[in-house]
TrEMBL record:
Gene3D superfamilies: 3.40.630.30. This is GNAT family N-acetyltransferase. PANTHER family: N-ACETYLTRANSFERASE (PTHR43072). GO terms for molecular function: acyltransferase activity, transferring groups other than amino-acyl groups. It comes from the Bacteria.
Amino acid sequence: MIVPIEVENAEDYVALTKKLESESDFLLYEAGERPVDGEKMKSMIRAFHHQPNSTILVAIHNGELVGHVMGMGGSAKRNKHVAHVVTGVLKEYHGRGIATELFTHLENWAREQEIHRLELTVMVHNFAALRLYEKVGFQIEGKKKEVLKVDGQWVDEYIMAKLLY
Ligand SMILES: CC(C)(COP(=O)(O)OP(=O)(O)OC[C@H]1O[C@@H](n2cnc3c(N)ncnc32)[C@H](O)[C@@H]1OP(=O)(O)O)[C@@H](O)C(=O)NCCC(=O)NCCS
């Protein structure tokens, strides 16, 4: 089941993001780096609810949050039609089509909000995510060279986007 996040999901969402960050080296934050707690997350969710061009959708399996996709809309008149996208699914649930389903819901939401462009960045060696994004219609627009340092190594990222209309 894919649904927009509610304030009462805040603690579970903190647990999800912490677990994702501990399971994957492909995310921006390292495990334990971000000081997130339930109260801060509640404020963030409330803020998202007040921005029509931003959303957090969560995948729920047997009452547990197992994945999410976040779309963060621009704050200026000139970029409010753009949403930056971040996603992750717990390792145990990979390969079951959950991310694909999250992106279908994200795109439906984006079209309803008249968002014109979904964009994201992805490490060039994150093959699973690259395949997912290409499968759901994103295209590589360019490469940010040595933009991240992961375990002491420079890492490049692709900039990818999908235009919706
Ligand atoms: C990338 C990620 C979100 C995919 O989630 P998922 O629920 O497993 O994805 P799906 O089951 O919907 O698969 C979608 C497509 O992704 C590709 N894919 C998924 N896992 C893959 C793998 N291990 N290797 C290669 N391609 C893979 C496939 O093309 C697949 O489509 P197909 O099964 O029709 O061929 C998940 O691997 C993840 O959370 N990774 C860690 C966090 C992360 O990297 N987030 C993105 C940061 S930019």
